[in-house]
Amino acid sequence: VKGIEKYGLPVVHMATVVPISLTIGANRIIWHRYPLPLGDPPQGETDSYKLRLAMVRRALKALQTPVEGQTVFEK
């Protein structure tokens, strides 16, 4: 994350365990409650798709948000 950002490219780190993201130095962290990074298989494919789409939208919004240091985006 830090290696990419040093070239001026903002990065969003999607995580279920925020302390790990904080430890590696991610500046924009998207937290979500599901045990898998981008989905929830028991919900079925349609609902998992909706979840992934919402995560991507949150990530794009986080990329557009100026931050000073580490910021966790919960919703």
Walkthrough of the structure:
A three-stranded parallel sheet has the order 1-2-3, with helices on both faces. It is elongated, with a radius of gyration of 13 Å. The chain has three helices and three strands. By secondary structure, it is an alpha/beta fold.
Tell me briefly what this model is.
With 75 residues, the chain is an alpha/beta fold. It has helices at 2-5, 18-24, 45-64; strands at 12-15, 28-31, 71-73. It is built from three helices and three strands.
**What portion of residues belong to β-strands?**
5-15%
- Name the helicity range: 40-55%
Intertermini distance:
21 Å
The count of DSSP E runs of length 2 or more, i.e. the number of strands, is 3
The biggest beta sheet reads: 3 strands, parallel
* Uncertain segments: none
**SSE order, as H and E?**
HEHEHE
Mean pLDDT: 87
Radius of gyration: 13 Å
- H/I helix tally: 3
Q: Characterize the overall form.
A: elongated
Q: How would you describe the oligomerization state of the chains in this entry? A: single chain
User: Helix/strand-derived class?
Assistant: alpha/beta
How do the strands line up in the largest sheet? 1-2-3
Entry keywords:
three-stranded parallel beta sheet, alpha/beta, elongated, 41% helix, 75 residues
Topology record:
Layout lengths: L1 H4 L6 E4 L2 H7 L3 E4 L13 H20 L6 E3 L2
Parallel strand pairs: 1-2, 2-3
